[in-house]
Amino acid sequence: MALIVQKYGGTSVGTTERIKNVARRVAKFKAEGHDIVVAVSAMSGETNKLIALAKEIQANPDPRELDVIVSTGEQVTIGLLAMALKEIGVDAVSYTGGQVKILTDSAHTKARIQHIDDGAMRSDLAAGKVVIVAGFQGVDAEGNITTLGRGGSDTTGVALAAALKADECQIYTDVDGVYTTDPRVVPEARKLTTITFEEMLEMASLGSKVLQTRSVEFAGKYNVKLRVLSSFQEEGEGTLITFEEDSKMEKPVISGIAFNRDEARINVIGVPDKPGIAYQILGPVADANIDVDMIIQNVGQDGTTDFSFTVPKNDLGRAIKVLEGAQSQISARQINGDDKICKVSIVGVGMRSHVGVASTMFRTLAEEGINIQMISTSEIKISVVVDEKYLELAVRVLHKAFGLDAIQ
Amino acid sequence: MALIVQKYGGTSVGTTERIKNVARRVAKFKAEGHDIVVAVSAMSGETNKLIALAKEIQANPDPRELDVIVSTGEQVTIGLLAMALKEIGVDAVSYTGGQVKILTDSAHTKARIQHIDDGAMRSDLAAGKVVIVAGFQGVDAEGNITTLGRGGSDTTGVALAAALKADECQIYTDVDGVYTTDPRVVPEARKLTTITFEEMLEMASLGSKVLQTRSVEFAGKYNVKLRVLSSFQEEGEGTLITFEEDSKMEKPVISGIAFNRDEARINVIGVPDKPGIAYQILGPVADANIDVDMIIQNVGQDGTTDFSFTVPKNDLGRAIKVLEGAQSQISARQINGDDKICKVSIVGVGMRSHVGVASTMFRTLAEEGINIQMISTSEIKISVVVDEKYLELAVRVLHKAFGLDAIQ
Questions:
Q1: CB-nearest partner of A99 from B20, B87, B143
Q2: CA distance A160 to chain B (A)
Q3: Which of A137, A287, A335, B147 could be joined to A97 by an S-S link, Cβ 3.0–4.6 Å?
Q4: How far apart are the C-alpha atoms of A264 and A324, rounded to whole Å?
């Protein structure tokens, strides 16, 4: 008998029929004698619908009130799943993030979990109940509703597993594991039986939608055994996220290709080419709680230079407003944004021991006439920003170039 | 400068455009120097959509989980209205029932308000903010989400007015006041400038959708000045609910005609005609927290009798299940239900001083060939149950028979 936390994503609970299927799967594990805690997302499409509604009122929705609105999506799902379990004779109880309670900081729309009370859950489990928790949400110390940002339900699942010291955290999704890349873009993509934690972290942070970055970080930090599985298949071991990269006998150079349409590029043109300018530009952006990803600074000419960086597409308007407020201080000639970009990344721990990976990547893209706008690298990944229209082409040719199409 | 509680119903907040209109109206009152607390319903249609979703999972939804689900409707509206106010430069903050907090008992789907904390609201008002509260919902002492039942947002509005000792509680709706009957059924229906509290209570409890019964009771108990207004008209005094029936110079015999399609009839056939049988039948129904409205017991024959009563249509399935469970104890030959009925009621404080009201009602219906299935009376109302198909006809002929068509 184990304590298992299962997380079901939006597609897995996208209709009442699918919610009933989830209930049957949960009941099966329960019948095997396991204690089950379930974290759920909003039904697919709901969160976007709620955000669209909010934007009909405010182009840049007030973050506190946006959280009040979007958190209702998961609240509906927890009630429906609890009912579906009761309907098949399994006792269950639902909790919102605030009811658990999942305490977060006050950074609305991107809050971080600080603490989870396990008292109520433990006594429900002891009473034989399945505990269902709304993913993606929490409350701050003042009782304001917060959300964890896109994909935050994964983080909720992992954080619950960590708080409860669960034996395994199972992430059920609409795919049966982690693939070399998104099979909707490259049909030849292959499922990985294992992936190292580091690789998964890069894949997640680079836009592979299978797991949210923070959830992988969380799992690493608290040593949570994490498995990605399909909620649409009865069988299957999914992909296990391994902690020991050495457990893999043969490392491929590249394990996967991630991509991301969710960033936008901001260009700050004609700023003085002097020390401290990066801080002057990025300081106000960070103060506005906007994440900056890639950064490049051009070689200066005539004492001025151009500075570019990427931010989440959603934050583009706000970031530009912040910069325009600081425009005279940073003496920028012009500030503009481009949301027609995408980021394509190759990831693999094998990169450490192989040379020429970058040149293979750049040559492959050049042969297709794809211009690289920005580059960023880490020990096990290389990311490039290209025009959004080249996304599918870039991923496809890189997948082939790094031998990921081949059957292993 | 006054403290005004305004309540906006589902139609008044049915679209984001309408929510913006509500914001402008609230801003106008605020600009006049008043402190404003707003209670809102779910956007029209949302609650029914959520209930339908729940019923796809469970024919008789688990009450606790149903409350978790349906309470999200109002939660979306409070966020949207807070945004709409901020968008036009009025500071505002939203609260769910649990956040306020509005403490209720634990009778899920029909909870009663026990206490409202006014601390947070008072300090927000002192800080110049408009306070927006989700109608229809609260939390019990254990922190479970509860709802107040259909139309419960009116009760929230009145209860907030009572807790805050507000100067007036304004109920904004899609009609511009209380009418002699529903104008959609009888186009000749007239708006009343005042109606006594007692009449309003009967109208509400009998199915006039303008105000929920409990909200009128609440207003009476705490002496809350209540006014019904249209959210779609800029001007208009609406209908004021008066406490002194004597303030009316000339009382019409009948003030209004209410009707209700929301009840179903249960027949318990062939039970022993002995004392205590009514309690044996209705006891289990009351224990299941199902409201019983009209009750009739036929004259017994051969030592057995038939017993009929009405329950909310939503509770029909559950009530029959409860009775079937007790069938052997109550020795009933048969138990069946009929949900194709409606209740039509005439209401008026003038009834006290006029004779022949009942006979006028029964003769009018008989002349149209409408069979009366059940009758119930109080000091100021007479209700009859008839076949649902006769509803419009019955209301129309009674409206005319009691002189309500005439211009006063």
A1: B143
A2: 20
A3: A137
A4: 17
* Token pair in block for residue A235: 């069988």
If you measure CA to CA, which chain A residue comes closest to B144? A99
Residue B18: count of CB within 10 angstroms of its CB: 19
The pLDDT of residue A385: 94
Average of per-residue pLDDT across B81-96: 98
Total CB pairs under 8 A between chain A and B: 103
- Answer whether residue A262 is part of any domain: no
Q: Do A80 and B57 touch (CB under 8 A)?
A: yes
Distance CA B110, CA B137 (A): 10
Say what the ipTM of the complex is.
Answer: 0.74
Dist. CA B11–CA A232, nearest whole Å: 40
In a domain, A56, yes or no: yes
Alpha helix (H) residue ranges in B247-326: 277-287, 316-325
Q: Which of B18, B65, B66, B137 to mutate against chain A (most A CBs within 10 Å)?
A: B65
Nearest alpha carbon to residue B312 among B328, B296, B289, B281: B289
- The answer to whether the beta carbons of residues A101 and A138 sit under 8 Å apart is yes
Residues B220 and B36: their CA atoms lie apart, in Å, by 22
Q: Indicate the number of domains in chain A.
A: 1
SS3 A340: coil
Q: Which two tokens stand for residue B145?
A: 């989400």
8 Å CB contact of B80 and A20 = no
Mean pLDDT of chain B: 91
pLDDT tens digit string along B44-71? 999 999 999 999 999 999 999 999 999 9
CB-based contact A69 B62, cutoff 8 Å: no
pLDDT of residue B354: 77
For residue A376, give Cα distances in angstroms to A304, A310, A401.
23, 11, 20
Which residues in chain B are contacts of A18 at CB distance < 8 A?
Answer: none
The 3 state secondary structure assigned to A347-387 is ECHHHHHCCCHHHHHHHHHHHCCCCCCEEEEECCEEEEEEE
Half-sphere exposure of B240 (CA within 13 A, CB side): 10
- List, for residues B265-279, the tens digit of each pLDDT value: 999 999 988 878 888
Hunting for tokens 């890189």 — which residue is that? Answer: A398
Q: Name the band, by pLDDT with cuts 50, 70 and 90, for residue B349.
A: confident
**DSSP character at residue A112:** -
Number of helices and strands (H, E) in chain B?
A: 14, 22
State which residues form the domain around A39: 3-174
- Indicate which CATH number applies to the domain containing B34: 3.40.1160.10
Spatial distance between the Cα atoms of B123 and B131, rounded to a whole number of angstroms:
10
Q: What is the pLDDT at residue B251?
A: 62
Task: List the one residue out of B264, B261, B253, B214 whose CA is nearest residue B404.
Answer: B253
- A81 in a domain, yes or no? yes
Chain A residue numbers touching B83 (CB-CB < 8 A): 54, 57-58, 61-62, 65-66
Note whether B71 contacts A: Cβ–Cβ < 8 A.
yes
Task: Write the DSSP symbol of residue B149.
Answer: -
Phi, psi dihedrals of residue B151, rounded to the nearest 5°: 75, 5
Rg (CA), chain B: 22
Sheet-wide strand order for B92-95 = B92-95, B130-134, B35-40, B3-8, B168-173, B226-230, B239-242, B194-196
Q: What pLDDT was estimated at residue B144?
A: 97
With CB atoms and an 8 Å threshold, state whether B53 touches A143.
no
Per DSSP, what are the bridge partners of residue A311? A264
**Mean per-residue pLDDT, B125-143:** 97
- Say what the pLDDT of residue A298 is: 78
Domain presence at residue A219: no
Q: Cβ distance B146 to B137 under 8 Å?
A: yes
H helix and E strand count, chain A: 14, 22
The total of other beta-carbon atoms located within 10 Å of residue B190's CB is 18
Looking at the DSSP assignment, which residues form a beta bridge with residue A382?
A: A346, A377
pLDDT value of residue A406: 66
Length of chain A: 408
